[in-house]
Automatic annotation (TrEMBL):
It holds the Pfam family DUF2944. It comes from Paraburkholderia caledonica. It comes from the Bacteria. InterPro entries: DUF2944 (IPR021332). This is DUF2946 domain-containing protein.
Length: 190
């Protein structure tokens, strides 16, 4: 969390939080959702300002109930999730090795890979701070190039780096949030 955010929280500790105004879409884009977007259920307008995107990414956290938020100074802005709290891109490095980068540009080291019943691929990091991320749909071909899939496309294995093979596990999309302990729509929980 940025120091300026910590200072604002200390100065104004009781600023009410808000919901519905910020969304992380299925492709890892941050979107502003005004009243009209919220009323129509649309995703809103993509945020393109690099400094603002950096600020959001540095101050993006999870609360004790599994709701993700952006700490905007003293105000907590809860995030509507298009699917998972993280979206990753699968990159083939110049030396041929694979890398996963989340929407903030940070490395994502998976310990599990899953395929949902709607065709999405998810990576999970089940370390001390577990995370789950959906693979950007533009990278499905790269994934397929490094996977040995069964006919059902829901099982098989993914050939990760350094010779590590991760078993591909099926999951129902409807079960992902509860399985990984996050709330996709904090507004519905308010």
């Amino acid at each position: 969390m940025d120091d300026i955010v910590k200072q604002a929280l200390a100065k104004w500790p009781n600023v009410p939080s808000c919901t519905g105004w910020l969304m992380l879409d299925r492709r890892g884009n941050w979107r502003m959702r005004d009243d009209a977007a919220q009323a129509s259920g649309s995703s809103g307008v993509p945020i393109r300002h690099e400094a603002l995107l950096g600020f959001i990414n540095r101050n993006y956290e999870r609360d004790e109930r599994g709701q993700w938020f952006f700490q905007n100074g003293p105000q907590r802005v809860y995030v509507e999730l298009g699917y998972t709290p993280w979206v990753v891109r699968l990159i083939v490095e110049p030396d041929g090795t694979l890398a996963l980068k989340d929407q903030a540009g940070n490395d994502f080291e998976p310990s599990a890979v899953l395929a949902d019943d709607e065709g999405a691929i998810l990576f999970a990091d089940t370390s001390a701070q577990p995370r789950v991320a959906v693979l950007h749909d533009h990278d499905l071909e790269v994934f397929a190039d490094h996977a040995a899939l069964a006919e059902d496309s829901l099982s098989g294995e993914f050939h990760w780096k350094d010779g590590v093979k991760l078993s591909l596990e099926p999951v129902r999309r409807a079960d992902v949030a509860s399985r990984f302990g996050f709330v996709p729509s904090p507004a519905a929980n308010a």
